[in-house]
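Risk register update: the risk that structure generation would not scale has been downgraded. Supporting records follow, first protein first.
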Amino acid sequence: MQIKKPKFWDLKRASLFSYLLWPLSKLVESKSFFKIRQKRKFSNIKTICIGNIYIGGTGKTSLAIKINKLLKNKNIKSCFIKKYYSNQIDEIKLLEKFGTVFTGYKRINCLEKAIKEKYETAIFDDGLQDHSIDYDLRILCFNNINWVGNGQVIPAGPLRENLNKIKDYEYIFINGNLENLNNIKKTIKNINPTCQIFTGIYIPSNINEFKISEKYLVFSGIGNHQTFLSMLKNNKFNIIHEIEFPDHYKYTEQDLEKIILRSKELDCNILTTEKDFLRINNNNLNEIKFIKSELFIQDEEKLINDIFKLNE
C-alpha cells in the first residue's frame, strides 16, 4: 500500500512528532557521515549528477531531460543513468522518450555500459548520496513550494541529509513557478555564499491542445502536486476539482473508474501529468488527457557554458 508523506514533514516548523523522532534522525545523519567514500573517477566519460536532499518532487527528471537536450544541440553524445526501482518505472519511461537510458541496480555498472557504447556524457537522474562515483558536476535540486519542509532529517522530516550539506554543492536549482524565491535564495546563500543558484520554471508545451476555459478535474501522484496545480493556474486553466495521490502511485482500475465517475458528476474534463499518464494502463485512456511540461532555465547561457566546459 502506498502512503503519502506525513503532513508534519512539510510544516514550516518542527512539530511534536518531529521532536519525538529527532533521535532517529540523528542516527540517519551519523550513518551518512560514516559511509565509506571510495569514489571512482572516470576520465573517459563526463558525469553530471542531478539529485536532491528533499525526498521527492524537486524536478530532477525535468532538469535531466533539459540538460540532455542542450548537449544534443551541441552534438555531444549523451545518455541518462537511472537506478532501477520498481516504483519508478514511470520516470524511466519518460526519460526513454528523450534519449538512451541505462538502468540497473548499481549506477556504476550502468556507467560502465555507457562507456562501452562510447557516450561522451552521462546524466544521472538522482544519485547524490551514491558514494561510489566521483561526479564531474553535481546539481542539487529543490522545489520552491515544498522547499525543505520542516527542515528536519528523516524520519523527523523530509530531508535525506542535514540542510547544512548545501555548503558541499556548487550548483543549486530551485524549480517550480517562482514562488518564495527570495527567502529560499537568502537561506541558501547564508549557508553557501559561493554557490551558483539557478531557477527553473515549468512551461506547458502542449497547451494548444486544450481549451483552458473548459472545466477540469486535475489529479496527480507526483512529489510536487501543488507545483503542477500552480503551473495550470498560472496558465488560466479552469480547475474545479483536484485529487492528490502519493508519489509514484500505481493506479488501480477502481481508482480510475472513480476519477471518471467524478468527472461526469461535475461535467468536466480530466487532466493529469505525463508521468502519471505513463502509469495508467486501462481502457479509458481516451477520457484522460495529460499536460506535457518543459523546464525553462533562467540564466540558461551561464549553465550551458559551465556544462560545455566539461567536454572541452
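Supporting record for the second protein:
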Amino acid sequence: MKTVLVTGSQGFIGSYVCTELLNKGYKVIGVDNYSKYGEVQRAHDTHEHFRLIECDVRCLSNHLDKLSDVEYIIAGAAMIGGISYFHKYAYDLLATNERILAETFDVAINLRLHGKLSKVVVLSSSMVFENTDVYPTPESEVEVSPPPLSTYGFQKLASEFFAKGAWEQYGIPYTIIRPFNCVGIGEEESLQDEEYYVGNHKLLMSHVLPDLIHKALTLGPNEKLPILGDGSQVRCYTNGKDIARGIVIAMESEKALNEDFNISTPTPTTVKELAQEIWSQLYPVGPQLDFEYQEPFMYDVQKRIPDVRKAEELLGFKTEISLSESVGEVIEWMKQKLVK
C-alpha cells in the first residue's frame, strides 16, 4: 500500500481527498491543527489506514521520522475562507500561507533526497485567474493574464511557483490542481469568520451555497432573500467528491507530470440561479422567491468559468455530480445542523 501525506486533512476539500484515497486503497497520513473549524469529526478519522498528526504544518519538519514511507504529498493546508477573509486577513493570508508552503516543500525536499517521495500535488485556486477576461479560462491563461490583486489569489499563484522551483532545483515532480468552487457537506462555520448580518440573518461567509441555504431556511414571513451584489456573479459549483476524484487521478497519472489542471464542472451558474435551485428544492409549491441586494465585497470576482478540456483529454476526467444533486445533499446536511 502506498502512503500519501495530506496536509489540511481535516478541512473541507481535505476530508473529501482523504476519503477518496482510503477508498482506493492508500494509506493516508493527515496533518491538521483544527485551526479553522475546531476539532471536527470527519468520516475518515476512524479508518484503519488513516493516521493524523495533529500539528501546525509550519512545524511538520519535527515529525519527519513518521513520514519515511510517504510517496505522495497533497499540499492542501492553507489559511482559507470566504470573501470576507480577503479583507480581514489580507496580510495573514499571504504570510501564513507562504510559511505553510515553505515548510511543506522543505519536508518534500528531505523526503525526495532521503525517502520515497515521487510527487507533490499542490492545491492552487481559481483565484489565480482573478483578472482574466478569457472565458472559459484555459490553464495557459495563468501565464499571460494580469496577476491577482487579492493577497489570497497572489499567494495561490506563488504556491504554483513553489512547485516549479522545487522541480527546477531539486527534481521533485509536481502537479498543480485548481479546484473551482467546491460544494458539499462538511463546510463548517470558520472560527475566524467575520460576523456579518443582514437584518436578523447572520451570513455564513465561507461559501455561498451553505450561506444561501441557511438564509432560505430561516427567512421569516414576507422576508426577501439577502444576496451580495446583483446575483449575476457566475461560478461553476463542483461537488467535493468530484474534485477529490480529479485530484487523485491527477496524482496517479504519468500524463499529469509537471502539469496544471482546472478541476471543475464546466457548467456556469449565476448566484441568482443557484438561489432559485435552492428555493425550488426547499419550497416546490411555496412562495415566490424575491431578493434583497447587498453591497458586494471588493474581491467578489464577477466570473469564474474554467476550460476543462485539458483534464478531459490528458486524464480522462469529467465531473459526474450535478448541481441539483449537490444542492439537495447540502440542504439535508444544513437541516440537520439547524436541528442541533
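DSSP finds nine helices and 15 strands in the chain. On this basis the risk owner (M.S.) recommends closing the item.
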